[in-house]
Amino acid sequence: MASHDTDLSAATWRKSSYSNGTGGDCVEISDSLPGIVPVRDTKVPHGSALVFHTTAWAPFITAVTEGELTA
């Protein structure tokens, strides 16, 4: 993960396509910042975010898309 000092003020957020539509378990991601992908809870938009390097995010998304991860 990236430093806790990462400035996310320029991030453009979007709801993850894997979030449910009931307003419960929703996450937002930003793919507008070079080299990192921040993830936050939609219910706490001004709270903290987990920040991943794109080199870690890409394999994670591939694993999710291919069904390699199960709940």
From TrEMBL:
InterPro entries: DUF397 (IPR007278). Residues 1-24 are annotated as: Disordered. Residues 11-64 form the DUF397 domain. It comes from the Bacteria. This is DUF397 domain-containing protein. It comes from Streptomyces lasiicapitis. The lineage of its organism: Bacteria, Bacillati, Actinomycetota, Actinomycetes, Kitasatosporales.
